[in-house]
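Note to self: keep these together.
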Amino acid sequence: MVDAEILEYYGHGGEQERLLAGDRQIEFLRVWDLLGRHLPPAPARVLDIGGGAGVYALPLADAGYEVHLVDPVPLHVEQASAASRAAARPLASVAAGDARALDAAGAGMDAVLLLGPLYHLTSRDDRVTALREARRVVRPGGVVVAKALSRFYPLFEDIAQGTPIDIDRTAAFAGDGQYRNPGGDPARFTTAFFHRPQDLAAEVEEAGLRLRTLVAGSGVVRLLPGFAERLEDPDQRERILSALRLLEAEPSLLGISQNFIAIAERSASGNQADAGLV
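Structure:
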C-alpha cells in the first residue's frame, strides 16, 4: 500500500512536465545519458517501475525498445496511457502496480528501471523487497538501474537558496534520512527516504544483484548561479554533461550529488547466492 500522502502529492499532476524544462532538465539528460550507455540495445524489453507519466518510457519506446510501464499513481497511469496512444511508437503496456509486488507475468525483462520507487519506500525492508522484485523479473545477465536521492544535497540547496536552517531538524535528517511533509503542501516534497551512497550499494547487494557501478547523477550543478540559462546553450550544456560524465564515479563526490544511480545486474553465473533468491 502506497502512503496516502505520496498519492495525494503526485495527484496534483506536476510530475508529467517536471524534468522537461529549466534547471530540472539536468536530471533527465544525465539519466538518459546513463541509459544510453548501460541498457542493452533495442529492441530489448524494458520494465519501467514507477515510470510516472512516461518521461523515460516514451523516449525509450521511440528509440525502438519494448517498454512496459508500471506505476501506483492512478493519474500517472492515465497520463502514460494517453501519451502512449498518441505516440508513433506506443508503449508495450501500461499498468497500475507496486514495486514491491510485481506481476509475475512480467518476468524475463532485459532491463528494469527503478528511477523513483526507492526514495518513496521509507523502510529498508521495503526497498530491498523492491530490488528483489526487480531482480526476479529481469533475465540472468539483465540490467537493473536504480536511483536514490542524496541525504546531503538538500542542506547545500538550502544554503544556496538562503532558506532558514533548523540545525536540530537538519541533524536528525542527516542521521536517518527520513523526510515528511505533514502539512501536505504541494509546493514541497512528499514522504521520502534520502540515501547515503553506501546504503544504496548495500541494499542492491542484499537483494542479490551484482553492483556494476554507482555513479552521481545531477551532481550539484543546479546550485550554480544562472544554471538554467547555461543549460539552454547547446555548447555549455554539452560541456556540463561532459564534466558530470567525467566525474560521475568519483567516490568523494557521490554524497553531495543531488542523486546517485546504481547500475546493477542479475548474475548469469547461477551461483549459490543468486539461486537462493529465485
